[in-house]
Amino acid sequence: MTSPMPVGPTPIDRPRRLRSNTAMRSLVRENTLRPADLVLPMFVREGASESSPISSMPGVVQHSMDSLVAAATEATERGVGGVMIFGVPERKDAIGSGATDPDGILNRALTRLRSELGDSTVIMADLCLDEFTDHGHCGVLDADGRVDNDATLVRYREMALAQAAAGAHLLGPSGMMDGQIAAIREALDDAGYLDTALYAYTAKYASAFYGPFREAVDSSLQGDRRTYQQDPANGREALRELELDLAEGADLVMVKPGLPYLDVLRDVAQASPVPVGAYQVSGEYSMIEAASAHGWIDRDRTVLESLLAFRRAGASTVLTYYASEVAGWYRDGLPAHLREFL
Ligand code: PBG
Prior knowledge:
This protein has one domain (33-341): Aldolase class I (TIM Barrel, Alpha-Beta Barrel). Helix content is 37%, strand content 15%. The protein contains eleven helices and ten strands. It has an eight-stranded parallel barrel, surrounded by eight helices. Helix 5 links the parallel strand 6 (170-173) and strand 7.
């Protein structure tokens, strides 16, 4: 025996009307993704003759020069907004000499990419010393072993000139040194690189979500970066960093990591007159991969949902290790199980 449905109060507002079918949902969708919103971070390893996997980031590799060019060309053909290049040098030293050497792996990769790709995508360079220093810090150290802010700015200026000379369109200073945007902008302007733009890592937190990246760049870091990257407990200081970066000449600003910091992204996006980006970092990528490998989540839908969340929170661009794959989905027409994201 079944009992009759209870008759309850009749709602006046029925938001479900706008969710009643695919076409209706599509009509009222507020945010969408396009390939040009996505930036692909890529790793290139000095001396490598072929690409090698990064075990903590299944599907992401350390490229050889040739495989980097091939993958960047493919991503460009799929319409990604840009590529962000990180170098993995063979040799490291205290001041990160490889970062400013025109023959260093990162500068060679930038030169090669610019000559192959021209202006068909935006070629971005990570501007930081951590991959190149034997102690793994983002700057040079003083006599007491602390990261020396102002001595580091001198190195960043030199690194910026090397990257601009190599043809990078957009430099991404990720070291969280005070005054880095002003120092780099001045160096570029003095040398006549007026069109080389700056993508400031404005709010970059000292995050455990960078874990897999340390393997990706063979990091030498002992300890942590808490004297220069932001405390995860703090939101307000992101707005102070934003003010400073804008005053110093940032062309775009970024919040990093991504999903755990959507509140910060929203605050920065509301306050910023320049485009705002978000970085879905290595640990976020690896969590999605690990859970989907177990069959615990639907990988593809989780990927698109996470990327859409950045757009909803106010990001114009999203740096993500999924950039090329997702751009390919949109270019080829979204498969049936992903149509809800069109
Ligand atoms: C530092 C840098 C890091 C990342 C990008 N640039 C690591 C760090 O700050 O410790 C992390 C990116 C990621 O986890 O995907 N140059």
